[in-house]
Design brief:
Blueprint (H helix, E strand, L loop, with lengths): L4 E9 L5 E3 L3 E5 L6 E5 L5 E7 L11 E14 L5 E10 L8 E3 L3 E3 L12 E13 L4 E10 L5 E14 L1
Antiparallel strand pairs: 1-12, 2-5, 3-4, 4-12, 5-11, 6-10, 6-12, 7-8, 7-11, 9-10
């Protein structure tokens, strides 16, 4: 039996898997024919978008997916947003009778949250973990985007891409 160590793995996470908090969201056709989108109507409010990282997990340390970074495809129309801030959230599942434990692994956002990531345009932003992590079977991760929108800001979420090394 062979061993796989592929450093160039990527998983597309469609926009309809995102958990969108605050605002009126609908699943729509994307701005480009043949694409899909989650569309948020214009409103002056802060919204949080949680996108689950869909990559293979493993119960053995050092196996499965070594998560490196996640890219977000989003478009702002109508008006620029005030800011768009990305982070990664780690949730360790609680054992029987115990609650989950939530943390925020350190990392950096490619675009500047309050300027270039929030302009009136299409964006492909990235959050890179400072220390890549293997995703164990007792935990899960998601990309969190917090968008502070102006009254006329419309958000179209195109999905996300998780980049990882696969070791099996």
């Amino acid at each position: 039996m062979g061993f796989v160590h592929d450093t160039a793995m990527c998983a597309y996470i469609p926009p309809n898997l995102a958990h969108c908090v605050t605002g009126t969201w609908t699943d729509t056709a994307g701005q480009v024919a043949g694409t899909i989108s989650r569309h948020k109507a214009a409103a002056a409010e802060t919204t949080t978008i949680n996108i689950p990282i869909m990559a293979p997990q493993n119960s053995v340390a050092g196996k499965g997916s070594l998560l490196k970074y996640v890219e977000l495809d989003v478009e702002f129309t109508g008006a620029a947003a005030t800011s768009c801030t990305l982070s990664i959230v780690k949730v360790v599942r609680g054992i029987d009778t115990a609650v989950d434990v939530v943390s925020a692994p350190a990392g950096t956002q490619l675009l500047t949250a309050a300027t270039s990531a929030a302009t009136l345009d299409q964006h492909r932003d990235r959050f890179t973990l400072t220390t890549p992590v293997f995703i164990g079977d007792g935990e899960f991760y998601f990309l969190k985007a917090v968008v502070v929108a102006a009254a006329a800001t419309v958000i179209d979420l195109g999905g996300a891409f998780a980049y990882y090394t696969l070791r099996i």
